[in-house]
C-alpha cells in the first residue's frame, strides 16, 4: 500500500459522432484520466507518462481514450457494484461490533446512501448535438463523483483499491508498478 495519497481527475474532453460497421451512428466521448503523485518520483524511476508539473507534483498517468455510452454505462454498473459491496461490508462489520463509534456509523450511512449519478439511456436522438452536450455535462458530473470516490478509497486502501483497479482497467492502463 502507498504511504501517500494520489490525486485523480477524469475529464470529458469532447466527442465524435462515428458510423459503426453496421451503419449506425454512435457517439464516442473523449475522456482523459490523470493520476498525480503529490510527492515527486525519484529521478531513478523512468516511466513513459511521468512528467513534472507545477505544484511540485508528478503526473503518473495521463491517458485519453474514446468510449461509447454503452462502455461508460458498464463502468457505471461496475463501480456501483463495488460501492454497494463496500457499503454492505461496512454495514456487516458494524453489526458484528458492539463498540462501533458514532463517526464510523455516520460514514457507513453516507456510504450506503451515496449513489453515482449517470445519464439515462436514450432510445432516440443520442447523436443530436444538444443532447450530446447535455450528456457530456452529465458524464462530467459522474466522473467528478468517481474521482471523489477514488480519492476516498486511495486514502484507506492505497493503490490496491478495487475501484481504482477497475478504473485503470477501463482506461486500459498497464505498467502501473511505479505507482
UniProtKB/TrEMBL annotation:
Residues 1-179 form the PX domain. This is PX domain-containing protein. InterPro entries: PX_dom, PX_dom_sf. Signal peptide: none annotated. SUPFAM superfamilies: PX domain (SSF64268). It comes from Naegleria fowleri (Brain eating amoeba). It comes from the Eukaryota. GO terms for molecular function: phosphatidylinositol binding.
Amino acid at each position: 500500500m502507498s504511504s501517500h495519497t494520489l490525486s485523480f481527475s477524469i475529464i470529458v474532453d469532447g466527442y465524435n459522432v462515428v458510423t459503426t460497421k453496421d451503419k449506425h451512428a454512435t457517439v464516442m466521448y473523449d475522456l482523459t484520466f490523470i493520476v498525480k503523485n503529490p510527492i515527486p518520483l525519484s529521478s531513478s524511476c523512468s516511466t513513459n507518462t511521468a512528467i513534472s508539473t507545477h505544484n511540485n507534483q508528478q503526473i503518473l498517468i495521463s491517458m485519453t481514450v474514446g468510449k461509447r455510452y454503452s462502455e461508460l454505462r458498464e463502468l457505471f454498473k461496475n463501480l456501483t457494484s463495488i460501492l454497494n459491496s463496500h457499503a454492505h461490508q461496512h454495514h456487516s462489520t458494524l453489526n458484528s461490533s458492539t463498540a462501533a463509534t458514532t463517526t464510523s456509523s455516520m460514514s457507513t450511512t453516507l456510504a450506503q446512501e451515496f449513489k453515482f449519478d449517470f445519464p439515462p439511456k436514450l432510445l432516440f436522438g443520442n447523436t443530436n448535438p444538444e443532447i450530446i452536450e447535455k450528456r457530456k455535462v452529465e458524464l462530467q458530473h459522474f466522473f467528478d463523483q468517481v474521482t471523489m470516490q477514488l480519492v476516498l478509497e486511495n486514502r484507506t486502501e492505497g493503490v490496491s483499491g478495487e475501484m481504482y483497479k477497475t478504473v485503470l482497467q477501463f482506461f486500459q492502463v498497464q505498467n502501473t508498478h511505479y505507482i
